[in-house]
Design goal:
Layout: H1 6-28, H2 31-44, E1 54-60, E2 63-69, E3 74-82, H3 96-106, E4 108-113, H4 123-139, E5 151-156, H5 159-173
Parallel strand pairs: 3-4, 3-5
Antiparallel strand pairs: 1-2, 2-4
Helix pairs in contact: 1-2, 4-5
């Protein structure tokens, strides 16, 4: 269905092999430790994939996050990226190849947040983390100083898509900048 060059095909085969290996490992892990093993497997799934962007860990008003900034990015164009993972797994690390590509394609500095996960936290904690990070992103540049955002986008996959829609509804209902 998709046409890949030779290097892309090799990279895809490597990811699929790691996925099969991770599933086999999870089947051997006791149920109580399975969630942590799943999180670890997801965080390392794309670890060897090369990315061109610079990545920097930041504290977004108490929310752990990571700036992903491709070469030529406009620091006044910003994107809040909310990862998927069924609300119980995933992180900026597990989605770094995706946020790298988003930064390269859009020219935005991408802020990927590490929202609090289930079951250790209630779902409302993830929602609050998204709101907090959004407010922080409005005023903070990837260059480390206060600067208002010229353009602002929100993106997410799976559970992150759900949180993105929740955030957009909150922005609308509270008359905040969309």
């Amino acid at each position: 269905m998709y046409h890949l060059d030779a290097a892309g095909a090799v990279a895809l085969r490597a990811v699929l092999a790691r996925t099969r290996g991770a599933v086999k490992e999870l089947n051997r892990v006791p149920m109580r430790q399975r969630l942590q093993a799943m999180r670890s497997a997801l965080d390392t799934l794309f670890l060897n994939m090369p990315i061109a962007s610079q990545c920097q860990t930041v504290n977004a008003a108490g929310v752990s996050a990571e700036w992903v900034v491709a070469k030529g990015t406009n620091p006044e164009w910003r994107m809040l990226y909310i990862h998927g993972g069924a609300f119980c797994s995933g992180s900026p690390l597990s989605h770094r190849t995706l946020t790298n590509r988003l930064s390269e394609t859009t020219g935005c500095a991408v802020l990927a947040i590490d929202y609090r996960l289930l079951p250790e936290h209630q779902l409302m904690a993830a929602i609050v983390d998204c709101r907090t990070a959004y407010d922080w992103l409005l005023a903070h540049s990837c260059e480390g100083h206060l600067a208002p955002a010229q353009r602002l986008y929100i993106a997410g996959d799976s559970a992150g898509g759900n949180l993105s829609l929740s955030l957009l509804q909150w922005l609308r209902d509270t008359d905040r900048r969309l």
